[in-house]
């Protein structure tokens, strides 16, 4: 097993980046990283939702692409917001499917949309990054915000 160390950002917004192999065990490592980072930043109240979000975002390239590596980024956007991103080299955009409670799969992005303040997918020349922004409960509006059709909310 390869040891993967999260690298703190030296400049810009506070955050951590880690490259993980597209393997099922990487989901557990990404969840632990999100939980640890949110605890360090004193916003562990977001950890449960953050763990679910990173799991779903990382599972998409595992299940739907041939990518060998994915990059997980956790950034502190502001005092009350955290951005969780998973980037991979596939250009296939994830698709939000309906909330079919009986379905055995395909509800991941619905969960991301339900748990996050905003989410989306940015296309790049090298692939894509799928992201979600979590807000602390005190600052989060009680309105569902679907993903923008294009662009980024940073």
Summarize the structure.
This protein is of the alpha+beta class. It has three helices and six strands; from the N terminus they run ββααββαββ. α1 runs antiparallel to α2 and α2 packs antiparallel against α3 (108-115).
SSE pattern: EEHHEEHEE
How would you write the strand order of the largest sheet?
1-2-3-4-6-5
The counted number of beta strands is: 6
Show unreliable segments: 142-154
| Oligomeric organization of the protein chains | single chain
Strand content: 25-35%
Number of DSSP helices?
Answer: 3
**CATH top level?**
Alpha Beta
Indicate the CATH architecture.
2-Layer Sandwich
Question: Number of domains in the coordinates?
Answer: 1
Given helix and strand content, the structural type is alpha+beta
What is the fold-level CATH name, i.e. the topology? Answer: Heat Shock Protein 90
Radius of gyration: 15 Å
Secondary structure: helix percent: 25-40%
The general outline is: globular
Average pLDDT confidence is 84
Largest sheet: 6 strands, antiparallel
Give an overview in words.
By secondary structure, the protein is of the alpha+beta class. The chain has one domain: Heat Shock Protein 90 (2-Layer Sandwich), CATH 3.30.565. Helices cover 28% and strands 28% of the residues. The chain has helices at residues 24-40, 47-64, 108-115, and strands at 7-8, 15-21, 69-78, 81-88, 118-124, 127-135. A hairpin with a 2-residue loop joins β5 and β6 (127-135). The chain is globular, with a radius of gyration of 15 Å.
């Amino acid at each position: 097993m390869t040891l993967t160390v999260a690298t703190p950002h030296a400049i810009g917004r506070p955050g951590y980046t880690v490259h993980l192999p597209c393997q099922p065990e990487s989901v557990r490592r990404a969840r632990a990283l999100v939980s640890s980072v949110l605890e360090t930043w004193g916003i562990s109240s977001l950890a449960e939702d953050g763990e679910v979000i990173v799991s779903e975002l990382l599972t998409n390239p595992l299940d739907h692409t041939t990518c060998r590596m994915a990059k997980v980024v956790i950034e502190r956007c502001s005092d009350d917001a955290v951005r969780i991103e998973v980037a991979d080299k596939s250009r296939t955009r994830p698709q939000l499917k309906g909330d079919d409670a009986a379905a055995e799969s395909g509800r991941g992005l619905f969960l991301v949309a339900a748990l996050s303040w905003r989410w989306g997918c940015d296309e790049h020349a090298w692939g894509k990054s799928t992201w979600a922004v979590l807000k602390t409960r005190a600052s989060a509006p009680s309105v569902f915000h679907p993903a923008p059709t294009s662009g980024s909310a940073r």
